[in-house]
Amino acid sequence: MSQLIRTIRLAFKSLLLHKLRSGLTMLGIVFGVFSVIAMLAIGEGASKQAQEQVLQLGATNIIVRSVKPPEEAATGSGGARVLRYGLTRDDHRVLTRTLPTIAGMVPVREVTQDVRYLEWTLNARIVGCTPEYLEMNHLALASGRFLSDHDERTRGNTAVLGYETARTLFPREDPMGKTIQILSRAYTVVGIMNERMASAAVGGSLSGQDYNKDVYIPLSSFQTRINTNDLIIKRTSGSFSAESVVYDQITLKVADRDDVLATAEVIRETLNRLHGSKRDFAVVVPLELLKQADQLRNIFNVVLGSIAGISLLVGGIGIMNIMLATVTERTREIGIRRALGARRRDITQQFIVETIALSGTGGLIGMGAGLCTPLAFTGIKYFVTNYIMEPNSATSDMSRMFLEMTPQIAMWSLPVAFGFSVLTGLVFGVYPARSAARLDPIEALRHV
Amino acid sequence: MKLAAELVDLHKYYDLGSVQVKALRGVSMEIPQGDFLSIMGSSGSGKSTLLNLLGGLDRPTKGKYILGGKDVAQLDDDELSAIRNSLIGFIFQSFNLIPQYTVLENIEVPLLYRPGYPPISSKDRNRCLDVAAKVGLGERLDHRPYQLSGGQQQRVAIARALINDPEIIMADEPTGNLDSKTGEEIMEMLKALNAEGRTIIMVTHEPDVAQQTKRQIFMKDGVVAGHGIFQG
Q1: pTM for this prediction
Q2: Per-residue pLDDT tens for B208-217?
Q3: CB under 8 Å to A100, separation ≥6 — which residues?
Q4: In chain B, what are the domains?
Q5: Measured between CB atoms, does B109 come within 8 Å of chain A?
Q6: Selected residue of A13, A340, A448 to mutate for chain B interface (largest B Cβ count, 10 A)
Q7: Is residue A340 within 8 angstroms of chain B, CB to CB?
């Protein structure tokens, strides 16, 4: 044991003799270990972000959305150019009655319309929903109250504003109690939502949602005032088309997390039966997305891990190169040690320990650098937002995902990366060390 | 008289591709304990090969070399290393100190490779200091070899050769790189060690250095061509 400590001490001593050379050799390992930790941290951060978004959607939620079917189904009833599709009251009723595992259900109707207050206008998303909407989407109120059952029953003309909506329409006033206009109808503001991070698109079946530009009104009011008879008529340069949708979305909350996947399956089958061949709905299960996010992270880790592994390999080759040069340079020292009684394995041990000291130190430095990943990432983000991207154009999902992501250092990656640096030293140190030990002592002593 | 080493018809051949070089062609001799032997001869006479064999750095092709009661030809590499470590002390013409080590650390090197790797104790440390003092290196223990004169470096090498208290000291032209005055000092030191009872085998080509030893042999073409005993 004391022998090993002595060897390690001597190894560092030899390395310190050539500080620049040792430092440069170490760089390869430093970068290798740094990139292992940094890349895993970025992968972990991205996956955590995805997971958070899924959890915002609600891990126990099942979202059923109306989907506009492909063109062939567009010939509505009796030649009338009314496109009927999506979830119906029947669907809602059947689901309510047949699913015992459901704790709650919110049907939603939404449309994008201008909202006005005096001279201020905002093109907002008008959401017709029931009071449960608040809880199911994990929204929080900043002031006032959310829609009540009373509002829903009486088709009340009440509205709750999203954070951004409130700020745009009421830059200088308190919106509470004021009256806003949607399609010439008046609504009284009864509540304002907290700011909420937009959720990016998940899994391709659910587009990104920005809750901040919402206006919430009772579903019953929506259905009587905004799209009477479920019809929304669009005029486009001379022709007009009409679409009839009863609900844009029904969010179901499952009581027990274990039942989510089974319930989703039942919902899919039920709706398939009710809709026949019409593919005009989609079932989104955040819990399934969570599993996809996990898989994605694993793929990420493997890909990034291999890239980092390659840089460790390159670093290892650099170390081997230097150690071979060192062995040649110190041939005479090896001869002296052999003459004074060092056995072959003493020489092997000396050079392997020296290589590991080199790569291990590099590993430690790389670990330190890796711990600074979040800091470096903040710097990169600052640079990107200020010099590369226009401040307001960061709207694509990818760039938003990048900008809102924080690298999460995976604690397990620290010992793993350090272990790999030591292993690299061991693997690439064996050959130079053995060639040192194989030297003939007489030849080595004669070496100039 | 007890023998320190015994050589019986020792041969050493080197294979250089197609050519076989016969460096030693049957050397026999007895080296009693306490002997001070100098080996002379021109280059290529086989004297260096003989010293390497005697020092346990190499094994003979043929013949017997009994050292410390064991036939060296039968030993494996590890056992030879152990013999070099405990039975033999080396002194070289070019000193052969380890450049990155201090004087004290250079003296300690043979302690690192003792059989069983015992840790360096305070007793060992004291012995290092004693040996250093004995060869006249009282102060410069934390110096590096390049900060020392040739004579001082050779003193470090002698201290290093003595640290494991070996029976036999192998000296390969120990005065070859030194001026005559310093060489004289080194020879006095070797004579003192011989007077303590240590066997010393020295290769040299300087007759006046060889004259100071108890016994000389002359090598030629791989065999002992002549020898004589002079009183030191």
Answers
A1: 0.72
A2: 899 899 999 9
A3: none
A4: 34-57+84-229 (3.40.50.300)
A5: yes
A6: A340
A7: yes
